[in-house]
Automatic annotation (TrEMBL):
This is ABC-type transport system. Residues 212-253 are annotated as: Disordered. It holds the Pfam family FtsX. Residues 224-250 have a biased composition (Basic and acidic residues). Residues 19-207 form the MacB-like periplasmic core domain. Residues 317-431 form the ABC3 transporter permease C-terminal domain. The chain crosses the membrane at residues 314-338, 358-391, 411-433. Keywords: Cell membrane, Membrane, Transmembrane, Transmembrane helix. It is a multi-pass membrane protein. GO terms for cellular component: plasma membrane.
């Protein structure tokens, strides 16, 4: 204890150089822990996005592209699959449930997902958790919408409010469906997945918005002529016809949330037994009427992490290099001050300190500097998480929890402490061999 007190007083006399060394170590520790926490939480966020789904089926494309577009709303699917193919596959033996998905629209930068009541019944995330409502209920008809928690929070939406979706992904909107406002009937509880940033509408709503009326070219202005009255009469007649057609589609099947869409983007599948998964997957991949792909989410996600493994290693190497540079800075500081402290060390020897005491003192200083630097770095790490967690959630969908350091993170800190001790051993060895006469002979 006396040795550590002496070491603390010794480094206190060299505040400027020691503070600079502490700061570099703290920054490196914060950077290392932050990169590691983001990496782990990113993996966890991706893995927990979908749970309990055996297959994802979509148009023939790359497995990873299908997974990212249908589940994580990253990128977009090049093609869709026909409704007839979906109906045929969902009736195969062993299929317990299916969830149709239609993507392609957006609302103020948030993805719009079309589905039916099976989405709220069978979709699972995390440890096979069900979607829950913080407010309201699921949609019951084509004029209702359910919001993810982040959508409602960021746009300040509430139950009963009318919203308008737009054609196009992300912040790019090609056409606003002003004549089809949707009423908010439910807000989902937070999940920490892309569900939070999604606007959920019935498939029928997607079909109505993309019907023949919206596929034709919309004129922004019309030239008025002398026969405006006749033109207005014809226009009113066409409008009434469109209105009747629109009403007919809505009322044709009361309570139905599907209608008859021509195609969907993808669909999720669950089976009564895992034995059916590989068999149905093979049948889908060789399905002749349409080129389809069926992927297993867990397997595809592992392929994705395999592709990103080199990036993870580069990030970890970058952090290790920063830590090494900071420790080398501490070594440089101790070595540069060693020659200036030879008289101090000689005085300690003259009052009874032995070479091993001098060695232990130098080691203690290195350990103390490293420990304080790690402590400050941990504090900065938690401050960085507190500040950045909202940004990561909003822009990247990565939910970072403020929790205790994991065993792996503690192991990293142990490596840093051990490395700092080794760095301190170099000047300690040099100080060990300084003789009393050498120290006392220095000219002031």
């Amino acid at each position: 204890m006396k040795l550590m007190t002496l070491a603390f007083k010794s480094i206190s006399n060299r505040k400027a150089s020691v503070l600079l060394t502490l700061f570099t170590i703290a920054i490196s520790v914060m950077l290392l822990l932050s990169i590691e926490r983001v990496r782990q939480e990113a993996k966890h966020s991706f893995s927990s996005t979908i749970s309990g789904t055996d297959l994802i089926v979509g148009a023939r494309t790359g497995d990873i592209q299908l997974l990212l577009s249908s589940v994580f709303r990253i990128g977009h699917a090049n093609n869709g699959l026909s409704w007839q193919s979906y109906q045929y596959i969902k009736q195969q033996k062993g299929v317990a449930w299916t969830i149709p998905i239609s993507l392609g629209d957006s609302h103020k930068g948030f993805s719009v997902l079309g589905s039916d009541e099976s989405y709220f019944k069978y979709y699972r995330y995390g440890n096979k958790q069900n979607l829950a409502f913080s407010q309201g209920r699921p949609f019951h008809n084509a004029q209702e919408v359910v919001l993810g928690s982040e959508v409602a929070k960021q746009l300040h939406y509430h139950l009963g409010q009318k919203i308008i979706v737009a054609h196009g992904m992300g912040n790019t909107s090609f056409h606003h469906h002003d004549d089809n406002p949707l009423i908010v009937t439910g807000i989902l509880a937070p999940t920490g997945t892309p569900v939070d940033k999604t606007v959920h509408v019935p498939l029928k709503a997607i079909e109505l918005m993309h019907g023949p009326k919206h596929s034709s070219t919309q004129f922004i202005s019309r030239k008025r002529s002398s026969d405006d009255h006749d033109h207005d009469h014809d226009h009113d007649h066409d409008h009434d016809h469109d209105h009747d057609e629109h009403k007919e589609v809505i009322d044709s099947q009361p309570g139905d949330l599907i209608g008859q869409p021509k195609q969907i983007t993808a669909f999720l599948m669950g089976f009564d037994s895992p034995l059916y998964t590989l068999q149905v997957r093979r049948n889908i991949n060789i399905y002749k009427p349409e080129a389809l792909s069926a992927i297993m989410p867990g397997v595809t996600l592992r392929e994705l992490w395999g592709m990103l493994d080199i990036i993870e290693k580069i990030l970890l190497l970058f952090s290790a290099v920063v830590v090494l540079i900071s420790l080398l800075g501490m070594l440089t500081t101790l070595l540069s001050s060693l020659s200036q402290r030879r008289r101090e060390l000689a005085i300690l020897r003259s009052v009874g300190a032995r070479p091993r005491h001098i060695f232990a003192l130098m080691i203690s200083e290195a350990v103390l500097i490293t420990a304080i630097g790690c402590a400050v770095g941990i504090a900065m790490f938690y401050v960085a998480i507190l500040i950045g967690k909202g940004i990561l959630q909003a822009h990247f969908g990565i939910s970072i929890s403020i929790s205790m350091l994991s065993n792996y993170e503690l192991a990293l800190l142990s490596v840093i402490m051990f490395s700092g001790t080794l760095m301190g051993a170099i000047p300690a060895v040099r100080a060990y061999f300084y003789s009393l006469n050498d120290g006392m002979s220095i000219k002031v």
